[in-house]
User: What shape does this take?
Amino acid sequence: MCPELTALPRCTVVQLSGVAPLRPIDVNAVEAVRRTAFVARGVAYPIYAPLLLPDGAAARMLRQQPGIAEAIGQFNRVTKAVITVGAWGPGLSTVYDALSERERRRYRRQGGCAEIAGHLLDAEGRIVAPQLSERIIAVGLEELRQVPDVILLADGAKRAAATSAALKTGLFNGIVTDASVAEKLLA
Assistant: This one.
């Protein structure tokens, strides 16, 4: 989506989650935030930190670092958010791909099937692994509830069930998707 942006009203751009180390640098969240802020002629608040940390203590420590704390401090000012959905499978979720096989299986047994902003959801849109949420640097779901416009990005038929789970959270009032997801959701 970001490379297609050519004009935006002047605005501040806030990164809503840390970066996934397994993605190429030219598509990571920091670059998307910087590019969007450039197009919008606004201030950027990037998060120079990983999305997923080894434990909650490491995540809490990073959240207190000045640049990260400054970006997180902007979460309550966000008026429009764009969130992607991941399905609980290889290549379909940055969190899934960053975990050990043992953790993946454990979270699947707990009902995990979708991931939004690093938070693992079951098929009904409920957080199923609060201990995993403690390890992420990302906007919380309760913080997202305060955002007036939250748009879900969902692509690929393999993400259809995850998209359904994400929509059941009640967080989203818009969706950008492709025909394969739309057809599965409407069925």
User: Anything to note?
Assistant: The longest strand covers residues 80-87.
